[in-house]
Amino acid sequence: MIPLSWYLTLAAALFCIGLYGVLARRNAVAILMGVELMLNAVIINLVAFWRYNQPTVIGGQVFAIIVFAVAAAEAAVGLALIISIYRRRSSVVAEDMNLMKW
Amino acid sequence: MSITLPQIIFLVVAIGTLFTGVMVVVARNLVHAALWLILSFFGVAVVFAMLEAGFIAVVQVTLYIGAIAILIIFAMMLTRKVMNDTEPQTNSQWVLSLVVAAAAFIGLAGLLNATAWSPLQAVSLEGSVAQLGRALVEPNQYVLPFEVASVLLIIALIGAVAIASEKN
Amino acid sequence: MQLDLLLWLIPVPPVAAFFIIWLFTNRSRGLSHAVAIVSILISWALSLIVFFNVIGLKDFGKTVIGSSVPWLPTGESVFRMGVLADPLTAVMLFFVPLCCTMIFVYSVGYQNYGKPRDPHDKVGEPPHNGVEPMYSRFFAFLSLFAFGMLTLVVADNLLLMFVGWEIMGLCSYLLIGFWYARNYDDPKKITPRGAAVKAFITTRVGDVVMLLGIAYLYFMTTTEEARHILGKAAGTLSFRDILYNAKFLEYLAEQPSVIVGLSVAALIGIFLFIGTVGKSAQFPLHVWLPDAMEGPTPVSAMIHAAAMVSAGVYAVIRMYPLMSAGWHEGGPLTPPMLAMGAIGAFTALFASTIAVTQRDVKKVLAYSTISQLGFMVAALGIGAYVAAAFHLMTHAFFKALLFLGSGSVIHGVEHGAHHSNEHLDPQDMFNMGGLRKKMPITFWTFLIGGFALAGFPFITAGFWSKDEILADAFANNQIVFYVLVISATLTAFYTMRQIALTFFGEPRTHSAEHASENVWTMTYPLIFLAIFALFSGFVGVPKELAELGFNNFGKFVSATLVEKLNTPEFTIVPMIFSIVAALGGLTLGWLVYGMKPLKAGQKDPLTVLGPIYTLLENKYYFDELYEFIFGRPARWIASVLVYQIMDRTIIDGALTLIARFAYFVGHVFKVTEKYTINDPPDWGLAAPIQWMGRTFRVIQTGRVQNYLLVAMLVVLAFGGVYYLRFIGLLR
What string of H, E and C letters represents the secondary structure of C441-504? Predict the structure, then answer.
């Protein structure tokens, strides 16, 4: 039997890898890929908890489905934003987007 | 205690997924990163299958790989001009980010392993897909979040079109 | 139409005229006087309808005409207001509107209607030869005055009567000070403004005390025992309820009041009488009346003959049962009656002595009015109720006639002055003379009026009324009788003096030479009033001389009282005295002034009296006395105490102090701020904040990843803290 903690550790590791990607990458699309990794980790967590704690309650899966939908929506909008920014400034380097600085 | 087969499979899949994940965030070539991302998604799908959430696994493949990863590649294509392979892909704060990520992982992992989780119950999950389908549309179950999610998707669709459309 | 409805309507036309003139017809002179005269004619007509209807009624007096409405709910009872016509009211209704109408018509001519506006005439000053600039205003005020008087006459309760009283007080102020812009070079001579204020304030003194009396009376009608006696009528000031109720009057006469020795009835009576002392210019509140001559002559006629002063006497006559409560014929007099007798008799003599020395034709008449009112008040003081009412009526006729006549004379002399371009006082009798030939109608009517005033035997109304007073005085109180006889003699004397100086001899100035008779609007009222001055006395002839006239007046009026007074036994003695007084005075006056009429520049023969003459001419220096006692302290209080000390020093000083304190506080703040916050760039409060801002703003890089990193660091820090607490390392 696979202990729950293994799944959770996997999810945590994936999450932290994604976090590093978000914090440390220059390209905005690369940042978005990191975000997708983080979301994946979240869904793994959800499903693992569902299977180990409440396998008969279908609500766990529903939760996961909803998170999928949200992730998809967010990815779409995020990429649209990146394209829009690229059109304006011809660059997708996150460091260059500092209009809100002092 | 000896390692059982499922555990071995899990370890293999886990390490694969993590490896590909790391490659996503360190690859210089963005398209390579995208491809590594797709592989990572596959690994996650296998994990879902191992958790006996078959439907979720299929949705993972269809949605993430079939839609989101493709979308990311499209976006990369549309923002290609400035990006080339030779420039460094990490920004100025990468060291601190590494530290933070590592610390986060250590903290999380430590906590998670220190907790006593309940063991797995063997239940029959026959017909859980049908059950899921019903749950999503039944008025006293989860039809409301389902509908709201669809509204959210519509909004995102309209929003994305609005933001990304070329204004003259 | 019901008679009591007519009573309600009687005061209405003049007040309607007031509003119409004020609001609508102010610009048109003809329309204004037409409105005013029509209104007073309507009131006169209504009054006559009422009068002729009531004199035929049986038992009129016990039964009266009247109606009232519940006006003010006061706890358990309701205060009612209404109208009343009893015999006394009927008499008043006969002569008051009549005199008022004559005065209104006279004013048309007096204010020079028909003549164009003289551009030299200034608004607020008397016109020289053009029409009065404030013509409409005059008629509006006269109408308001008539309204006040008529309200007072038809009122059925003390409060409504007091309302009419006060309205007349206001109008006296407005009308005496009608020529408000008039000023004199001589500072001792009072201006119309000053006279108006003087009149108002002096009568006010009386009014305040009277109001006290009214309030006290009202209070007495609401006591326990009063409720028992009056029943439903408790809490009232209605005449019928209070004065016709013998039990109630007895109750009041027995209750002791706050002043030892006086019953409630006596105290209230004295208070009410003090109101009359003010309004009817008795000593010591007589000082306003002579100075009220500053108003136009029709006003003087109105105030001093027809209306205001009559109101004072009417009030006493009306409240007579209260004042004489506890008095029975032949018994000792009640305190109010004593007061009235003393003050009335004294005033009669006092004023007539002053009248002997006056130069101004109107002032003679003013003091004469004071004196005649003294007669009436004295009559009331000794219980001669009917005589006082009778004299009130005849006095209204002949005094109004005399005043209007004097106005006619003044008008004529002014006209003459305009022609001869002389500047002189047209009212000074020593500037007149010989006007008999120049102004015949005025002369004859003035003669009739003067003889009525003097009491020329048998043919004038004044004789019969004065004789009745003297007869009553002879029967009741010898002191009063002799004082009044002397006063009557002096009255005749100064009347003859006045007539002789004005009309006999040769004109003493060019103005008198060029004087001429006035327009019909001025002379016809004189003639009309003269008829009444002659014949109105014949209703009050003693029944022993019944072949000379009728005796209805006495029977009619005495029905107003609960207890009928007996007319005294007729003795020939007082009549002889009054005939001797009248004829003697007239003859003396003729001897001094008429036989050898004075020439221009000649001094008054009476100046041989020396210091006595000066004392009389200066009115016993009463004005100066009052000025010293009351005027100067009041002015001092106003200008020094209130203005200098209270207002400027204390109040303004306090404000200045507050302002200075606020200024000081502001200065403190400024210095504090300067040394702590603002100025020094190194150690002030502003600089470090600026430095902090400059320093810390580098955090705002604008880069999302930086922000996110910081957020993650904080999350980790929190997580660490919680973990340490969880495992017990940190509390």
Answer: HHHHHHHHHHHHHHCCCCCCHHHHHHHHHHHHHHHHCHHHHHHHHHHHHHHHHHHHHHHHHHHC
